[in-house]
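Protocol step 6 of 9: fold each sequence in the batch and record its structure tokens directly after the sequence line. For illustration, a two-sequence batch is reproduced in full.

Sequence one:
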Amino acid sequence: MPWLAVLFAPWILLPWCWSAVRRAGISRDEGLRFCLAWLVTVFLLMSLVSGKQIKYLLPLVPAFALLFARVLSQMGEHSIQQRPWLLSGVLFTLGGLLVILPFVLDTAPWINHIHPLWGVLLLLAAVMLLLKRPLQPAETPQRLTLFTLLVVMVLHVGIYKTAAPAYDVQAASRIIARAQAAGHEVATQLRYHGQFGFAGRLTKPIIQLDADRARVWAEQHPQDYLVIIARSALEEYPKAVFTQPYRSGYLAIYSGEAVANNPAVLH
């Protein structure tokens, strides 16, 4: 459900749009009823899928666009007097978070690399939305499209490109795949959900261990490999085969021998 708000933004954040939908006379308009049937049916069908992903909701977008295009066409030439307070509030909140988070939050290494300027751009966009003159219905899509492009650019360049390396397991997966192909066993101390399986096209399972068992396993498998999550900076963990920032910490791949000689890396 939260992804619906993202998928339909910014229109879903404009209360006057929903008021216009209610006044549009859905019971008398076959086109509007068709769009609603499309939205409801596809949403219910996609809700039955066990492995839910946001891309499964993409078939809703054309119906949503047609619905609001129809509603805007029925509004005539009357200016939209209501200010986009909700949309501006969301931009203010998001912009403020981008400005202050790098200074107050250190739970993930990549957060410190977010430049506050991206948050300032969103704050300026929020102010501009409130200061602009009332729009004609026909002008609304163009104006909102420009603001949407700005927000997407900020989120992509300011957050996604900064955070993406910490969520990209391609390199680690390839190393694991090569180790398994060479006949080595690979175990992990992290909560494993198969994130290396598809990326590395793994054909063998990864052994899951807790911290106590990982130490014993490392001593018994000096030539095999152990994937761990470290909370401290990578330079504190030498002799790793591979390291990278990973989500809120660091991912490291060690030989069993390295872990047996330095069990502190497991904590």
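Sequence two, same batch, same settings:
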Amino acid sequence: MTEITPQVNATCLDLLINEMVPLAIRTTRELKQSYEQAIESLVPQISIKDEDTGDVEILNSELLHSEDVTHKLENCGYSIGIRLSEVLIYKDSQNEILKNLELLNIMKFICRDVWRELYGKQMDNLRTNHRGTFVLIDNAFKTFQRFDSPVDLQDTIYKCKPYLWISSGIIRGVLKSFGVDSLITPEITKFPMVSFNIQTNV
């Protein structure tokens, strides 16, 4: 097997992921306000205010765990996942895992190749019941390395949870690129350990 040279700049990826949750909150808030204004004026105007940018206080927003924010983050990850799998497949078409497209091999591809490309390491554990349900475990999720709330650990976990939806979307996008529909539930099992419970249609 040929060694894959990482093509994702780790710093750029960290900065992108760190900004995705605040951006989703800001756009959700602006859309909500614009919708309310549109009911009155029927002309929505969306703009992000300067004071909303670059402020960690946005993670205290009531929208942090809203369905709209979750949906935006998961969809961004989904788009990344589809494109990333195409790039990895194109770059490493001789990959033994890809020669036998069983669901378990696709999960191994996610755990090994996709995770290494994104986070510089493989997933730490892959479990399955061999009936379409999988659990992927990362013992030290890289996205959480710099997260620490001055309040307490519970507050840190609360503010970190939305970031898992990006990775869930990436996994769902990779699976979809192989024609596998899935439902993914991310969990913070023991900070910074995370797990992704995957239910597939296979």
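Proceed to step 7 once all outputs are recorded. Observation for sequence two: The domain at 10-200 is CATH 3.30.1380.20 (Muramoyl-pentapeptide Carboxypeptidase; domain 2).
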